[in-house]
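Thread: "does anyone have the structure for this chain?"

Original post by V.I.:
We have the sequence but no experimental structure in hand. Need at least a predicted one for the grant figures.
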Amino acid sequence: MTYKTLKLPSELRSILKRPIGRLLRGSPLQNASKLKKIISREEPTAVIAVGDSTARNLLAAEIPVNLFIIDCKIMRKPVEPFTLKNAVTIQAKNPPGMITAEAWKAIANAVNSTNKVIINVDGEEDLLTLTAILCAPNNAFVVYGQPHKGLVIVKTTSWKKRQVARIINLMTSQ
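Reply from O.Q.:
Generated one for you, tokens below.
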């Protein structure tokens, strides 16, 4: 597969402010409890956490996560990076408003890993949710925070991947 570097045009920003999956409303603790029940019921093929707050909340709730995509910021404020025993940590550059070929390739490789993987992004991880959805196996959960609203769960299906591919195809190649 060819990985491209893409830039988000301003007219797409409003589309991406809306959740692209199921929004769980509530506190991080309430949402983690809801997510645990959903995982138990649906048995996803993998769980991918995008964002530092989401990653930390899922870890605290002992929810098994296969891939963490973080940028060491919560609401744009720096936080300490975390490490996990037996996890592989990968560095990737991804400036705000972009999806770099480097980050895309890191995610594609990570979803096929048998290890837990942390992708530590130099820049911003927000748009990498889209890449994670495309790269994840079917019936995986990509989980991310919706600021001031709750937690979003995206179940990866062929239909959801086509929806995300249409958004990515509207981004400009760099």
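V.I.: this helps a lot. The longest strand covers residues 87-94.
O.Q.: and The chain is about 35% helix and 30% strand.
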